[in-house]
Every structure is written in C-alpha cells, then in structure tokens.
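pasting for ref
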Amino acid sequence: MTRAPSPSSSCIFCQIARSSTSTTLLHSDDKIVAFQDINPSAFRHYLVIPIEHIPTVKNLQRRPEDYSLVSHMLDVGQSLLRRDAPNSKHYRFGFHQPPFNSVNHLHLHCLALPFMPSWKSLKYTSLGPLGGFIEAEKLLEKIKPLSPLPS
C-alpha cells in the first residue's frame, strides 16, 4: 500500500503536526508530535501522531522505517504518561483499525487508566479478526522486519 504523497490540507492531524492550529503540543520532534485528546476517555489520554501523513495501521509494512516510527511513538507516549500520571497503575497504548478509526491519520492512543466513564473501555477493545483496537506491542510484532537470513 502507498502513503499519501503530501499532507492533506483537510486532515486535522496534518494541521496539528505542522503547528497550524492552536493545539498545545506535549512533544515535538522531526518525526512525531504528541498532544491531549480533545475528547479524553481516561484519566490521561494523549495522542501521538507521525508528522508524515500515514492514513491507518493498514498502511504500515514490515519495514525498518515503519517499525522504528511506531516504536518511537510508543516510547514517547510511555514517557509522557510516566511523567504526567506517575501514580496510574494501568496504561494502555494502541491504535484503532479501520473501519473503527475516527481520523484517517495514524495516531497512537496513550491512556492512563481508569477509563472515564468506565464504558469508554469498549472503544479500546480488540475485536479479533474484525479489527477494533490493536495494542501497540501487537502492532510492533506484526510489522517487525523479518531478520535477514544468516549467510
């Protein structure tokens, strides 16, 4: 699958990634940005997005670049929640899969539980073969580059 060649002017996350909105960034580097979810589902709820417009998890492949990007997104999300919700006992990190994603720009949900209200946990549940929510670690397993054959 191919990625969108350039940022979409209609994509709200592309606008946030390029600082053309008033959204406060919690983290910003040359690959990703992080910010608070405008409709939080948990005690702390952050989104980490790539600056590059990648529509969904379906656009990720077993490539070192994709694995590295998702790994970096997870590292940043984990460090933000450790900093901002150090007393939380449970965290959840993952992605909604089509057709259950609300914005067609890859975004990692970083949640410091509890869910608020508790019924919101349903949005962050795996539906097995139907998709739903995929934990970041499971996605990393799926896109981990195949190791080169020993010579």
